[in-house]
Structure formats: C-alpha cells, structure tokens
Amino acid sequence: MSRFVDRVTIHVTAGNGGHGCSSVHREKFKPLGGPDGGNGGRGGDVRLVVDPQVHTLLDFHFRPHASAGNGTPGMGDNRNGANGGDLELAVPDGTVILDPDGEILADLVGAGTTFVAAQGGRGGLGNAALASKARKAPGFALLGEPGQERELVLELKSVADVGLVGFPSAGKSSLVSVLSAAKPKIADYPFTTLAPNLGVVQTVPARGGERASAIDTFTIADVPGLIPGASSGRGLGLDFLRHIERCAVLAHVVDCATLEPGRDPVSDIEALEAELAAYQPALDDDHGLGDLAQRPRIIILNKVDIPEASELADIVEPDLEKFGWPIYRVSAVSHDGLRELVFALAKQVRDYREANPKQEARRAVIRPKAVDAADFSVEPDPEVPGGFIVRGERPERWIRQTQFDNDEAVGYLADRLNRLGVEEELERLGAEPGAPVTVGDVSFDWEPSTPTSDSLPVSGRGTDIRLDRPDRIGAAERKAARKLRRQHHDEWDPTLPDEDGDGSEDQS
C-alpha cells in the first residue's frame, strides 16, 4: 500500500576532497627532477532537484541518509585525482527546505529547480602547485577538505490553483474525481482521504470545437477533512493545512445532506474560517499570494441532488450571502451545476494570474569580494585567560588542509596566516608572546615577528628551521655523521703508539 509522506528529516553528506600528492620526479641520471605531485579531486555535491514524476517524499522516509562520492588523491607525474560523483535526489514540485531550527533555506517550485544541499570538499593541492621561487621543491602537500554534512527538513506544499476545504465527508474527493481525471479514494466514512489529491481541470470555451487555451487550465486539490482544532493539531488538519498555502483560490465545500446534529452550512464555514485564521503559514510572503484570509473564496453547496439537501440550500443561502462570496449549488453524482462552477473557478484563477504574472528568470549576478576585504576576525578567548580565537572561512580552511606532522607544512601555514594579517591583528589586540591562539580545532602558542620562509635559508624537504628540531635524527644528519666516522677511520694509523691505552689514536 502506497503512503503519502509530506515531511521528512534527511541527513546529507557531501564527498571529501582528495589529498594532494607530495612527489619528486625521478629518472635515470636525474634523481631530483622537481616536484610533480598532482592535486586531489573535488568531493561530490548532494543536490535536490525537482522532478515532475515524483509526488511524495516517501523515499526519504525509508532512506533518510544520502552521501556523495569522495574525490581521489593526487598522484605523481602531475596526475590529478578524479572528482567525486555528484548525487542528485529527486523531490516533488513545491518542496520547501528548512534547517533544524525552522529557517527556510529554499523553496523549490518548477521542474528542474536545484538546491545544493551539501557542498563537496575541495581537493588538496599537490607539491607541484605549491612550488614557488623561495620553495622550489616543497616536501608537503595540502590535505583535501571534508565534505559538508547537514541535517535538513523537507516539507511538501502542493502546487495547486484551487484548494477545496471542508469537513470530513463533505464530498471534496468526489468533486475532484468528476472535475478532473484524478481517481481518489471515495467512501462513506470520515477521513477517507489521507493525502491531498491533485487534479487538472480544463474549461472548454462556449463556442465549442475550439481547443482550450493554457489560461483555461488550472489545478485543483482537496485537503483531508478539517475539523475544529485542526490548527492546533487535532485530526489531520495540521498535517495538511500547509498544502493550501500556495492556492490562489479557496473553495468551501459544504455538505448539505449531513445528518450530524448541531451542524449547518453557516456554522461549518465559520468554524473552518476560524481554523484558517489561526493557522500561520510558514512562508512569509508565500509567492505574493498574501495571507490566507485575503485569498478569494467560493462557497460550494454540495449534494443538492438529495431533496432534503436542496431544501436546506434554499434555507441557508440567504444567510451565506453575508460572507460576500459567490455561492454555487452542485452535485458530484448528477453533475448539476458543475459547468458553472468550473467556469467560475477558472475566472478567479485567470484574474489572479493576470494580477500576478510569473516573474522572468533573472540572470545570476556575481559580486566578487574586494581583494583587501577582511576575511577573518580575532576575538579574546572567553575560556582561556590571555588567549585568542581566530575565526574566518579562509583560516579555518587552511587549518583543515595542513599536515601538522610535517614541519614544512606548518611553516607554510604560518606564512599564509601572516600574509592574511592575523599577526598584525594579534599585536593590535595586545597579545603577549606565548599566548594561546585557536584557529578551528587547533591551538598553538603565538610567537610574534616570526620571519617568513622567503628570508630563511633553504632546509631539507619536510622541515622548517623556524620550528623546534625533532628528536629523531634525519637522513641528512645520519649521512653527515657516517661521513665523519669514515674520515676518522681513514686518518687513524695502527702503527702509532697508544699512550693512554684506550685503543684509539691520540689527538695530540
């Protein structure tokens, strides 16, 4: 049995960027041919795309987690890693995307409308791309950035021109079935409709034989039965009131043949209007349609094919005129009054479309940031006395890209932060030497006036003389020590006397 799901929470994860490669070109008779490490591939994005063939969020209800492909690492010989595959998720027309706090991020209306739910991480640069005049053969590469992880709430708000509202068993589904080709479930018990039903209605011009124009075509939707208290969560109304937010015209369907005591058409309409007034749409402007109280209304007195219902319609029609809305008597069984109703609905929809023409798609406007624009901020650390926190997109991204087990990579990070102006800002705020500074998830002790790598002698690959020497002896130091031992062994003469008796050559 198919289910209609119009609100889900999904967890999307974009692909991670591939790491850059640190490699040196080697060939016969040319052991050091320069850096040739390639860049890592970009991580894939997760996109939500409107698909006209999708009508529910059921797939996300059973599979709420979605992940895009990761980028592959770079390789030697200047080979870049492959980009991760993007993941496109099909959503119905009229899907609204919100964050967990309820803030609207996007409103997807129209086939092909796309929203990037999670952005893939950048690939790290290889050492070939990091080479410069001062650093001709970098011994490090940048790490790929992790993909974005987000939790999103998807709400489906049906896109229909006319919304049918009314008490349970008022005949809304029956009207949709006779006015359009839709075939909703119809039964003689309340709350038969558990999901909104959409239908397309076409009006044929009175001249006959002429094809209906696009302006004479509109969509109609019935909302599952509303009852008093629906706006506060009673019945099914709270779950489906959102489906009338986009409707240009609201039609009250009144059951004139109801046998429930204490109910009459006037009280039914007043009760539903109270619920509509109490319901606050999540969208502020709602595509220019305005508040629900300002939407055009039509009153439909249904089931007039029953004699008692027709008599009740005669009695209450003068009382309904106080609302100031057009009143139509119809019967979904005998089709009485349906033609007049369809033309009345088409006219109201036509008037709305003429008053609110569709806006043409605007060209994308790109506003690049100024070169000297501040991309970071420095503020005192509230938890660490004398400490500071550096915030900003670029500093935090550089932290994620740095290999902290590589001294040369750490020195490169220090140069980037210095060129950005972080050190000057720390001095201006009165930072003392050794003050703890936090950038992203990393904290370090600040040393002011650290010289840049351009003014320092070249050190070994993967090292930086500005940082403390590691305890582990490097390959160059081992090679130099071995050379000294060989020289010492060559200079020793076993024929010389050993005056101190230690078995070694005297140095005097």
UniProtKB/TrEMBL annotation:
Cofactor(s) of this protein: Mg(2+)
Residues of the Obg domain: 2-159
Keyword GTP-binding: yes
GO molecular function, one term: GTPase activity
This protein's record includes keyword Nucleotide-binding: yes
Residues bound to GTP: 166-173, 191-195, 222-225, 302-305, 331-333
TM regions (residue ranges): none
Oligomer status and interactors: Monomer.
Function: An essential GTPase which binds GTP, GDP and possibly (p)ppGpp with moderate affinity, with high nucleotide exchange rates and a fairly low GTP hydrolysis rate. Plays a role in control of the cell cycle, stress response, ribosome biogenesis and in those bacteria that undergo differentiation, in morphogenesis control.
Listed name of the protein: GTPase Obg
The organism of origin for this protein: Gordonia crocea
Lineage of the organism: Bacteria, Bacillati, Actinomycetota, Actinomycetes, Mycobacteriales
